[in-house]
Every structure is written in C-alpha cells, then in structure tokens.
Amino acid sequence: xxxxxxxxxxxxxxxxxxxxxxxxxxxxxxxxxxxxxxxxxxxxxxxxxxxxxxxxxxxxxxxxxxxxxxxxxxxxxxxxxxxxxxxxxxxxxxxxxxxxxxxxxxxxxxxxxxxxxxxxxxxxxxxxxxxxxxxxxxxxxxxxxxxxx
Length: 149
Hints:
149 residues, mainly alpha, 76% helix, single chain
C-alpha cells in the first residue's frame, strides 16, 4: 500500500474521530468542560499507531525514520484539517464557541479566531510529535520476518 494512502486514510480517521467527539460533546452539553478536550490526544495516538502498523504490515517496512515520518505526517495532516474545520465551524455555524473558549481557564481574555487557530496548530504539532514518539517506542523493536530472511 502506498504510504501517501496510509497517511491520508489515517489522518482522515483522526479528523473524523475528533469531529465526532466534539459534536458529541456539544450534543451532551459538555462543550464548556475544557478538560475533556484532552481526549483527542488518545484519538491522535490511535490514528498514528494504525498508520505505523499498516506501513509495517503492508509495506514490510520497519525502518525507524520511515515510520516516524509516517506517524508524524498523519498527525500533522489531521491537525491541519481540524484547524480548517474549526475556522469553518466558528465562522459559519457557532461563533459563540469563541466566547466559550475565551471564558475558560485555559485560553484567557482577548481571544480572537486567529490566535485560537495559531494556538491549536502549535499545540497540535507538539502533540503530533509527542504522540508519534510515544507510539514509536512500541514499534521500534518490531521485526518484519520477510526483511530478515
């Protein structure tokens, strides 16, 4: 399987997982609880793990840097997609989310859409690196039988 396809498929899964999670939070009236947003860290770990696992299984590739690159690329594409969807959501569907975020303990006062997206991109990139390195601790010792023989 092509690595680009692996990255796009798993980034789409991460994106959909995060979108569904946030809509479920909204439907249940939990969007005010900022701490619940930490759950998307687990969604990113799941997607990165799946991408690396697929590269090892389908492409028989257990090279550390290759899998690190695939995991990081998967997470970054998902973060960028989430940021663009958040821009769309706040601009066209629910501008009040910006005020909810501004009133939370995490974001503080004078929050603009641009500042929020910048912060989410930086946080997303940092968590992408962290998630990828966490997952690679498991997969770095994985051996592919067909490569050894």
